[in-house]
Amino acid sequence: MSVTSKDDVDGILKFVADCDGKFEDSKCDIKESDLGGLGVFAKTDIAKDEAILTLNKSSIFSASNSSISNLLCENDIDGMLALNIAFIYETTVFKDTSHWYPFLRTVRFRDDQGHLNLPPSFWHANGKQLLKGTSFDTLFDALTPEEEIIQGFKIAVDLARKWNGEFRLEIPKGFLDIDEKNYDENFNLALEKFISVAYTLSSRGFEIDAYHETALVPVADLFNHHVSRPDLKFVSLYDVCDKCGEPGMCKHLIAEGYLEAQQREQCKSTTGNAATRVIDDDLISRLENGLGGERSDNDTDTEEEDNLTQNPDECVDIVLKNDVRQGQEIFNSYGELSNVFLLARYGFAIPGNQYDIVHLGPDFIKISKKEDRHQEKFKWWSQVGHGLFSAWYAQMRQEDEEDEESEIQSDGSRQGVNGEMQDGSGEEEEEEDEDEDEDEDDGLKSWLSQLYIDVNGEPSPSTWALASLLTLTPAQWESFFSQKATPHISDSIVNEEKLPFLAKTGNLHAKKLLSKLLKDKQLPVPIGEHPIGAKGVTDAMHQSARILIQSEHDILNKCLKRLS
Ligand SMILES: C[S@@+](CC[C@H](N)C(=O)[O-])C[C@H]1O[C@@H](n2cnc3c(N)ncnc32)[C@H](O)[C@@H]1O
Questions:
Q1: What pLDDT is attached to residue 529?
Q2: Fewer beta carbons within 10 Å, N or C terminal of the chain?
Q3: Which amino acid residue places its CA nearest to atom 22 of ligand 1?
Q4: pLDDT tier at 372, thresholds 50, 70, 90
């Protein structure tokens, strides 16, 4: 859980005002939310389309805006790693001398009891135990520590030492200064803190543009998430120069155009290799000098205008997309995310989350290991069947949708079709890969990942298909193929007209098999309201795990009802 203290609200608002930001505090209140920490509430009715927060991009905190931006850039550090390192330097080395400190000091990565805010992949083993066997564990493998963040920490420690050696830049105390005595212990403590900062920042960051990438945005990061009815949208022009952040023409684009024109000229006049040139400071300053006299008047005009009005392209806005009523909490959306993703990225879960599913991969694997008679069917399904069925199913769905569309059009009663975006989760992209082991691993994951029950308790198409396949009698199984190859079952040729059978959802035998599988499924028992008090397990861990597990139990129960 990453939450802000109410004692920090005035400081945050002062920071925004000092940056000439505009927050509609006559219409919005920042106060404690029932969801935990702070939230933003409507003081009056506010109409749709109103911008309740406008901030110049110069007042958000990104690695590119930070005091060490040049060092990060010189060392090719970008993305979340750059933001983490910049945050650590700003809050431990530069502190009061940093423009950002009054805002950054309000970002807390410990709870009231002093526990670090950690993702489940770095929870104490007792905490992880709470989520064992859930989709969090089996489908997403999200209890395994991510190697990338550990590598990121090592890079940060090395850079801190290098910068200290080269120009005496202080090493951030308690974060990147690892005492050689008790090295392992100190390394682990500092690593945990680094991970906590990374997790906290990623739960509060906004994708700004090609220059700033992910950044912290004061006040914007106080809106809580609503799974189905968010009230606002975050507006920021993404397409800017990735070297300086300018939204329109800038010296880098001019230099790029100049180089391209030069290269075209060279290609015309020579057939040999044209020397490749890069956009460096030297080229830019020569171009600027060349343009100097012409541009200076315009520049002065623009600067004067800038002082009077903010260029909207240089600002981020929070704009309401619904009318909101006095007293209601104003919600953002962090995305259409299941509890697994919410917990892994933001540290909370939502009861009855409409994007939740229950994964059945390990349960089918159990059957395959237990019952020899299914071996051949599993082999065929994992190697060939799943791919064949998925392609056929997708094609069939597309044809159905096209038929529906043409019916609607000829009927004329509705314009267009449902414009919902596919998230692609039903289709697996096939990547060419040299490494066969990796291919096999991906294949295994992809057929297993399609075995789930959705939030309404409906088994996925692949789940029905595999359950139906496993319940075919030996004679039906033989007749499934026009040519069956033994022992290399994957070389067999399928009777294509049999595929629709696998898409049927009411097959009695399949229903029986699924019911048994669900009853045998060993999800953790939902945890009661009271914390168990095991070592390393915080109340927040309990609460998140309880919601996530309860949601999976509810889905299983819905499915069992459907099947009975
Ligand atoms: C961007 S912050 C939102 C403001 C936060 N409440 C605060 O006090 O700073 C994201 C954090 O707020 C909390 N949060 C947001 N939406 C939530 C929700 N629907 N239920 C529970 N916690 C939520 C989580 O701790 C999450 O990591």
A1: 52
A2: C
A3: 35
A4: confident
